[in-house]
Amino acid sequence: MTWRYVPVAIHLEHSSQHALSGVFLLNTSTGQHYVLTVTDLAHPDRYSFKFVSPWCIGPSTITWLPLTLSDSRRLTEGPSGTPRILRDFIEGLQRDGHFKFKPNSSQQLTVLHLRIPETCKTNLAISFTNPDNLLPITFKRASDTPIPSKVALHCCPFSLTSVAIFINHKVYGSAALNLGNAGFLTDVKYLDDVIGGVVFLDSSPSESIGIMCGAVTKMNGDGELSIVASWDAIFSLLNYKDLTFPAQIENVTTSQVLTLDPSRSVVRISVIATDGRFWGSGVCIAPNLIVTNKHVLKSFDSLKDLHIRLPGKPNLSLHLKDVTIHESPMQGFDLCFIRLKNPCIDLQPDESTMLFTKIWKVSDQETKSMIIASAGCWNGSSGGGLFNQNNELVGIMTSNGKLSCGEVMPNFTLAIPINIIEKSRFMLENNLPSVDLKQKVGDLWSLRETHNSVLDSNTPTVHKL
Question: Could you identify which of 155, 188, 366, 418 might form a hypothetical disulfide with 359, taking C-beta atoms 3.0 to 4.6 angstroms apart as the criterion?
Answer without folding.
Answer: 366
